[in-house]
Structures are given as structure tokens and as C-alpha cells.
């Protein structure tokens, strides 16, 4: 069963399309990371999923229910943490937890205490006097203590220092081991997401470039080095799935976006006979940057 | 419901500090009210300054209430895309319910609870408390409605403040713009009466538009959070409301002069006495006098209204309305209800007074008693009708038939209480509180001629449902009424406290006795201060038709004017 499904989801701010024809599915139990640069439409997508914004067209189903009709019952199963959520800042951490607790029949006081200790949150301190990292932790705690079926995190690492990021990621990893929940996370901080996500979707200028499992994604991207020796390379007609093709002396480099050892080597040898082909795995960050760069080049090409 | 209460408690707890401040503003009004009674400053300017301060606090009360209502809504705003509550198991309906309960408790119930002890201390009975509570709650509801309407469609608190300023400016400017029309030289009372009915209709229709819009917008916004739709609806409602206020042409007030005589007034007769004409600017005023017969001795005439129809020989009919002015407060009935029996005047004093009168050196009688004409029961009334001069010219040259329909409100005067006239004397009851804050000799200026007087200052408060009492100074020793009623009066505005304050001045001529060839001052012996309530109780209507209208001049043989009191010596 899919915990989130969208079909041709579109949102326009007047004439600007923030999200366009977004169709994706998030399998139950997965940690789905929606990646994209600033302004790609990640937050707008999440806001539509959470019924904070009305889609201009298309629809989204969250926990099997139309996102526009999410009721109290469904919301009790969803945890939402966002970098720009309006928290009641006049409350202390304790007051925030006391306020949220009665709304959730599944609130786990033991888990609340455990997370309080783990996040090292000052209970009596007002939210408005907390640092950004502490505030995110408080919001996360108030969204985790009831063991939601779906946890939605919108840019949770944005603006946090590396230490706090590390704590937050570690916390999320530990928590994910505690129960069976699905996580939908949007971010442009790829290193942290890479450690968490088992599904990745990439959003570019409001359109979904792809969405697939992390393993599959990491498996199909390789940085290829072709050592040519003295032979002059023929660079005509490179396949479309080769990105960032470049030549430095006797070395040709590119990124294979559909890597298959046999097929890729075969394609290389077709163009560069007797060349030595070396394939190196890429990190999610490298993949993301390569895709973003390729997209930018394409956009420039279209405008030119 | 538990979760709804949970939200209500959170909201009120979150606003606790501003609510304490607001309560202090309300208590500030109480403090000023008490100062009026206890600090006994004789200066009317001081009383006015306190009244201004009271008004400032009342305005602050309203302003703080307005912004706090918005703050309560903004605590979980129904507009925006970063909302906290939307991502929690809180439905729009539950949130709306919680907000309405919160507004009810914090802004309607709380002010009443704060003010109830003060009301009770000011002589309110439970009926008056109930009425004052309703008035206070209605007032705060009027403030809460626009705050609610704006807060549910405006994103941030800052924008809310800006839009408030814009709307207040618009409300101030629009009437000004509309008022830029050629002003009429004079407005007749009939026009004023019609205008009053029209304005009342416009006010209620406009209010109905605003209330309906608010209810609809608030409900839709909490249900669906579609701001554009709500803003359009709010704009439409406000627009219709503004248009109604200024341009609604229909008056839906009840038609007048369909009155059934109240019990005890069936046998009262009304007759036409005389009429006078006076030119005023480019209008002419026709004053018509009436006299009533078979008037019950315990009944007092209050206000009324009249409509006149002048039937010309050429068949044309001129119609006009006017207010009926009566002699309330000065009728002989007020002597009777106090059981005052004037004793025979002191013979030595009377003899000396007569001597002085003969010499022309008397300033005024030491006891101001009703004249002999006034002692009889002569309930009378007059109405001033304003016509175009050409109408008056027409009826002055050719007499016309005249029909006047009058509608009069009557009252059985009720003595509320009577306290000794001395400084510090006070009493409460029937929604009234009264205190004599000054009772002292007036300082005589060097060039002043006249008998010595005593100056009395009385401060009173009354509930919104209580009529302003008529205060009378009585001389129980001589059985006389040295002062007919309030000499001068200063009132304070009351907005939030549901109390009206009044300061009344009396300058009482001190009774003088002629003994051993000199005047002896008799210092207010047995003087009391009484409060009378003239509550409108019944109405009767009469139609008087005469074939020919006569127009004696002022102070003619048929009509004699004595100050503001006019009497009829006999039929012409």
C-alpha cells in the first residue's frame, strides 16, 4: 500500500507554476526523500499534502484519504515538522507537549521522556528563546511522541550547524528503528538525507525528474573514466544518458545515468576501442549536483 | 468537547498578560467612578476632566478588546500556509467552536464579572445587573465582530493593524465626502423625525449586513480556508453595509399615531388653545398650544409628538410633524407627591418683604413657590411646527381649517428616595447611587446684591436602564420647595462601565427671617434632597379639529408667557 500518492498535482501562485503535474507514490514503511534545489517546489508539494495549500489541479491522497479532506483521525496519524511552521512561541517546551498530548490517543509518555532526554531539551524554556536547532528538535519531539504512521519533514536540516544536524539525523535513525512508520522528507541537504532515505525523488522547477529507491538510484549512476592513451577520441554522438562529458588529455570522463557494467563498457568501447574503462560509484550529493547542472545547461540551451 | 476546552484554556492562558492589562483598564474606570463620589471636588471642570479620563479609558477598553479578539484568532489563524493547528488533529469546526467560546468567556463574560461588584455597590438590583450585563456584552460584541471579520481573512497581525487603520480612516472619510452637499438652511422637526426613522432603518439594515457577512465569512474561512472567496464575500458585505448606511431610501420603522389609550387616560380631553407665528431664518414656526381636561391628578405629562394638517380653502393640505413639549418637572403634582404643606409665612418677615417689594428693592422671594396660576391642575402642551414662509403667509391671509393629531406619553411620578441635604449624605437603590459631595455657603462677591445662597453639589450614578432622576430640594420645615429641580447638570460619557454619572449643582436661596430690625439667616433647616423618577408608562392619542385657526401674538390677551412656563388665564 502507498502511504502517499499524487496524481498530476499542480499548484500555481497566480501565473507561476510552483509544482506541475507531480505524480509520485511513497510506499508504506519507506523513508522517501524529495530532493531539489531552492524553489524547486518541495515545500509547496508538502503543503499540498498536508492541506496547508489547495492544489490548483490534480489530487493527492495521504493515508488513503484526499489531502483536502484530511480529518482529525488522519491527522492524529501524521507528524509534521517544518522549518517555517508557525509554532506557538510563547509556550515553553513543557507547555507545547502538554498542549499537544491530549489530541493524540497514541501519545507515548515514555517515548516523550526518552526523546526529551535524548534531544537534551530544556523543558521550561520558552520556544521563542530556543535556538533554531533546539526549536526543530522540540517540534520533532512533539511530532514523534505519538508514534505517527507518517512523518513529514520539510527542510528539517536547513540552517542547522553540523553538530545539530548530526544529532537530528542520529535521532531520526534511532527513532526509525523504534516503530514502523513512513517518513517523507524534503531537503536540499543531501548528505543527511542519504543516510536516512531508502527512496529518493528529485524535483526540478516544479517537475519530478525521477523517483526511485536509493539503492536503484545509486546503482544506476556511475562516474566513468575512460583512459585513451595516445589515441584521439571521437566525441561525436554521445548517448543522452551520459552527463558532463569532458576530455582532459588522454582521459574522457562522464557520468552514466543508466549504468550497467556490460552495456556501459560496451558503449565506451564502441567509441573508444582499446580504452580502459573505470566506473566509480557516486554519492547521492554528486548525483544530485550532476542532475542539477545538467538541468541548468538544458535550460540555458533552450533559452539560447 | 474536552479538546475544545483544551484549546480555549490554551488561548486564554496565552493571552493572560494582555487580559490582565485589559482588566486594569476596566478597573481604572471603576477607580474614576469612585473618585467622583469620594474625592468630593466641587469644581465642575474637575468633574469634566474625570469624565474625559473615563472616556479615554472607555476608548482604550474598546481598543484593547478589539486587538485582543484579533490576537485570540491569530493564535490559531485560519489563513496562511504555515499554520500549526492544520497539521494537528484539530478540525476547523472544533477550532471555531473553541474560538467562539474563548471570545465569549474572555471578552463578554469576563468584563461583566469584573464589573458586577461595582454595579451592586452602585445600587443595581439583579434586573439592572442583568440589563447592564447585556449592554456590556452587546458593546463588546460590536467591537468583536469587525475584529473577527478582519482577523480571519488577514494573514499577519501587522497587516491586521494596518487594515484596521485603513478601515477606520475610510469610515471617517466617507461620511465627510458624502456630506459635501449643499446644506439645507433649516431642517424641520418633521424632517428630523422622518430622518430619525430612516436612520434607524439604515443602521439596523447595515448592521444586519455586517453581522451576516461576519458570520458567513468566519464560518467559511474556518471550514475551507479559501481566503480569496472570503475576502470577496467580506468586501461585498462591507460594501452593502456602507451603501445601506448612506443610501437606503426606505424607512421600515413602525408607523406612528396608531395608539390605543393606556388605562387611566381614556377620559382625558384635549382642546386647542391658541397659536403663534415666529419667523426663523427662511422658515416660519407655527406654535400651537393645547390644554387637557379630566386629567388624572396623579398623572404627569411627559414628551409627545404631534402632526398637523392645514386644510386650505383651495383644497390643498399642508402636513407637518413636531415634538410635543410639556411642563414635566414643574407641574403642581410634584408638590403633592412630596406631601408638602406650606405653612403660613412668618408675619414679620412677610411684612418686611412687602415693604421692600413696595420700594422696589427686593431681589427675589426667599421661597420660590408655584404661582397661583400654577397651583391648579393645568396640564398643557405646545408643539412647534416649521413651515415654509409661503405656507404661513397663505394661512395668515386666509384662515384655514386645522387638524392636529397628538400622541402624549404619561407617567406616574415615583419618589425614589429622600436624603438629608448635608455633605456626605448618600444612598443607593433602584439602579441609582447618589451622594451630596458639597453643601456650603456661596461666597458673596463684593458687588453682588441678593440673598445669601447655599451651593449644593450632588453626584449620582445610574444604571443604563434607569432614567435620569429629577432631583428636588425640599424644605420640610416650611413645607416648601425652594428649588424646583436640578439647577445645572454635567454628565460623563460611559462606554464600558455601563454607568452614567451626573453632577448636579443647586444654588439654594437661604431662608431669611426678619427679627429685631435685621435679617437672620436660617441655615437650610430640615432641607432634604429627593429623587423622582418619571418613567414613561402610558400613551394616549387625540385628534383635534378646528374650523378656523387663530393667531394671537406672543403675550397676547389669550396667552401669557412666564419664563419657560406658559399659562392660560381663560378662553379667548
Strand and helix layout:
The complex is a heterodimer of chains A (304) and B (572).
Chain A: E1 2-13, E2 16-27, E3 31-35, H1 42-49, E4 57-62, E5 65-66, H2 72-75, E6 78-82, H3 93-100, H4 109-119, H5 132-144, E7 150-154, H6 162-176, E8 182-187, H7 190-196, E9 199-204, E10 207-213, H8 214-220, E11 222-227, E12 242-248, E13 251-256, H9 261-271, E14 276-281, H10 284-303
Parallel strand pairs in A: 3-8, 3-9, 6-7, 7-8
Antiparallel strand pairs in A: 1-2, 1-4, 4-5, 9-10, 11-13, 11-14, 12-13
Chain B: H1 2-14, H2 16-38, H3 44-74, H4 92-121, H5 126-151, H6 157-179, H7 189-224, H8 227-247, E1 269-280, E2 283-293, E3 300-311, E4 317-326, H9 333-337, H10 347-359, H11 372-375, E5 380-387, H12 389-397, E6 401-411, E7 414-420, E8 426-429, E9 432-441, E10 453-462, E11 470-475, E12 480-483, E13 488-491, E14 500-509, E15 512-515, E16 518-521, E17 527-533, E18 538-546, E19 560-562, E20 565-567
Antiparallel strand pairs in B: 1-2, 2-5, 3-4, 3-6, 4-5, 6-18, 7-17, 8-9, 9-10, 10-14, 11-12, 11-17, 13-14, 15-16, 19-20
Explain what this protein looks like in three dimensions.
The complex is a heterodimer of chains A (304) and B (572). In chain A, 34% of the residues lie in helices and 30% in strands. Chain A is of the alpha/beta class and 304 residues long. In chain A, the strands form 3 sheets. A 6-stranded mixed β-sheet of chain A has the order 6-7-8-3-9-10, with helices on both faces. In chain A, strands 2-1-4-5 form a 4-stranded antiparallel β-sheet, covered by helices on one side. By secondary structure, chain B is of the alpha+beta class. Chain B contains 12 helices and 20 strands. Chain B has helices at 2-14, 16-38, 44-74, 92-121, 126-151, 157-179, 189-224, 227-247, 333-337, 347-359, 372-375, 389-397, and strands spanning 269-280, 283-293, 300-311, 317-326, 380-387, 401-411, 414-420, 426-429, 432-441, 453-462, 470-475, 480-483, 488-491, 500-509, 512-515, 518-521, 527-533, 538-546, 560-562, 565-567. In chain B, the strands form 5 sheets. Chain B has a 7-stranded antiparallel β-sheet. A 5-stranded antiparallel β-sheet of chain B has the order 8-9-10-14-13, covered by helices on one side. In chain B, a hairpin with a 2-residue loop joins strand 15 and strand 16. Chain B is globular and about 95 Å long. Chain B starts with a helix and ends in a 5-residue tail after the last strand. Mean pLDDT of chain B is 77; it is low at 362-377 and 552-572. Chain A binds chain B through residues 47, 50-54, 71-73, 75-76, 78, 80, 82, 84-88, 90-91, 99-100, 102-104, and chain B through 2-3, 6, 10, 14, 75, 77, 80-84, 86-91, 94, 226.
